[in-house]
Amino acid sequence: MEVVFWSAVFLTAYPYLVYPLLMIALGRLKPRPVHARPAEPTVTVLIPAYNEADVIRQTLENKLSQNYPREKLQILVVSDQSDDGTDDIVREFSSQGVQLLRRERRQGKAAGLNEAVRHATGEILVFSDGNSLFHPDAIRNLVANFADPDVGYATGALGFFSAEAGLSGDGASAYVRFENWLWRAETLAGSSIGVNGGVDAIRRELYCDVPIQLITDFVLPLTVIAGGRRVVFEPRALSREAPNAELRSEFRMRVRVALRALQGLSYMRRLLNPVKYPLTAFCLVSHKLVRYMAFVFLALALGSNLSLALQQDAYSLVLALHLGGYALGFSGIYAVGPRWLQKLGVVPGYLLITYAAFAVGTYKFLRGESMATWRPRAGA
After folding, report:
1. In terms of residue numbers, what domain contains 176?
2. Which residues, at least 6 apart from 374, have a Cβ–Cβ distance to it below 8 Å?
3. Distance (Å, rounded) from C-alpha 294 to C-alpha 290?
4. Is residue 38 in some structural domain?
5. How far is CA 310 from the centre of its chain?
6. Any domain includes 364
7. What is the CATH number of the domain that holds 93?
8. Which of these, 47, 52, 45, 98, lies nearest to 242 by C-alpha position?
9. What tens digit of pLDDT does each residue of 238-263 get?
10. Which has the closest alpha carbon to 127: 195, 67, 68?
11. Which of 85, 285, 336, 376 has the highest count of CB atoms within 10 angstroms of its CB?
12. Per the structure, how many domains does the chain have?
């Protein structure tokens, strides 16, 4: 039982402590720097949108104000059957060259991007969410990476406007900061396994149609790696957006991401072959699969700890600390106790919500369900 307990504890902590340290060590022992340099290829910015009337105007103004030659920049909005006036707002920008592609059948982001790419003229495709606001140099910094012929995909750094949005905003912000840091370490070692779908880019010739039930910003980078090119993190390509205002919205988003990521792993399972793709397989299991299975390890750790506590006094103390960690997380989720305690509970609370979403996503995956469509991130 002790083996079960400590193994479960190790596997829960592994994606956040051990794996990042291994990536840092590999990057220092055998670094693979990105040979980026200033470049100005033609670029198409693709913006999938569903009912983004509250934010799409600001997003388009943001893209039009990018520090990039306007004559080399195509902006294309893919409206996934929006019915809130999003399309009318986009049409107001037609005189500035913004193009609208309206889909009359709502099928989700992958279907929209698959169609939109056929209308793209840029050598580099840049993806933006409907509410993503880029730093003025974001596109310029992203495309500089493609001067390196080994690079096929580049991703930027996401941040959130509000740091006072409660567990959803503060927790998501901490989670994203950790991911940005980990992507930087993975890039130096070879390729980033995760990307930020709100500010990322791919060479036009490397884009391939993604099955509509899958998540494009998971599958596309993996197809690039499978093809022998690198996926790299560019910390200077900054993007900001509003976090989900409500925890249930964040939970729903995490369920969708987990479900579609598991479907993506199944679709790209050839990369899990450690003989053919040793580093990629290791990173996929470490960064993604072990993390998605954390709810199993948490249950094993708690169950084995309860059993051990009945047999050994030392494990009674461990159990008290164990339950204290859960109590801290719940104080963050339900905003109970002193303010300082709630603050301490933000990260463990967000992780508990995330692991619950992973459990639901895994259940849906095993049932063969799909969630191709989405709602705006900050929606209720």
Report:
1. 30-244
2. 50, 108, 109, 253, 256
3. 6
4. yes
5. 41
6. no
7. 3.90.550.10
8. 52
9. 999 887 777 888 898 899 989 989 99
10. 195
11. 376
12. 1
